[in-house]
Amino acid sequence: MVPPASLLLMSVLGSIGMAAGSVLLLGPEDRISLTRGVWLSLLGLIFFVSLFDLLNHVALSTSVGHMFRKKYELTLAEVLDISNKTVSAVQALLSCVTGTVVCVWSCTRNFLRSSHFMSEAYAWFGAAYFFYDIWSMYRVHSSHDRNYHGCRLARLKDYLTKQPVIVLHHLFIGSFGFLVIVYLRGGLGDCVFGFVYLMELSTPFVSFRGILSRLKMKSSQLYVINGLVMLVTFFFCRVVMFPYVFYLY
C-alpha cells in the first residue's frame, strides 16, 4: 500500500505538472478555452488542497514532524496555520512568476493590446486558491475551538462571524476578479494585469513573518531581516507600482 505522504506528494506534483503541460504548447498570444480553463481550475484546487494536506501530514504524522512540533511546542492550530501560510506563500510565488512572464511579454509590446496566455491560464488555476483558502482558514479556525464539541454548523457560523472581511475578499477575487481578467476586460490591458500579479511579491515575506511568530522567533535576527524585506517589497509592489503603471500608460 502506498503511504499517504507519497500519494499526497504525487497529487501535488502531478496536478502542477499537468497544469503546466496543458499550456506549454500554446503560442504566447493564444487564448484559454473554457474547457482548458475548467481543467486548470480543477488542477489548481487539487494542487492547493493536496499541498496543505501534505504539509499537515508531515508535521502531524511523521517522526520529523514530531521533533519539529516538540522543539517549537506547536499546537494543532499552530501547525495548521503554518501550513496555511506556507501554501499562501507558494501561491504568491506562482503569481509572481506569472506576472513576470506577462510583463516581459506584454509591456514591451503594445501596452493595451498585447497579451500572453499565462495571464488567463493562471487566473483559472489561481482562482481555485481563493476558494481553497476559505476552507483552509476554516480548518485553522476550527482547530482553535474547543467549545462546540463537534457541532460543525456552530463552528462555521462562528468562523463567518469572526472572519467576514477575508471571506468576502476571497469570494470577490475568486469570482469577480477572475471574470475581469478572463472575460470582462475584453483581452485588453494585459500589461496592467501582469503588475497586478506582481503585487503578491510581498506575500511570502508576510507569511514567513507569521510563521516565525508561531515559532516564537520574534526576537531573532531573521525575523527583523524578513520584516525589512517585507516592508521594501510591499512599498514597491503595493505603492510605487501604481504610479509606474500610470507612467507606462
UniProtKB/TrEMBL annotation:
**Which keywords does this chain's UniProt record carry?**
Membrane, Transmembrane, Transmembrane helix
> What is the membrane topology listed in the Swiss-Prot or TrEMBL record?
Multi-pass membrane protein
Report the principal subcellular site.
membrane
Per the record's keyword annotation, is Translocase included, yes or no?
no
Q: Name one GO biological process term.
A: lipid homeostasis
GO CC: one term?
endoplasmic reticulum
Its annotated compartments are: Membrane
Please give the PROSITE patterns that the UniProt record associates with this protein: TLC
Transmembrane ranges, per UniProt, are 6-26, 38-60, 121-138, 165-186, 192-212, 224-247
Annotated TLC domain ranges read 77-249
Q: PANTHER family in the record, alphabetically?
A: BCDNA.GH12326 (PTHR13439:SF66), CT120 PROTEIN (PTHR13439)
Q: What is this protein called?
A: TLC domain-containing protein
| Organism encoding this protein | Cryptotermes secundus
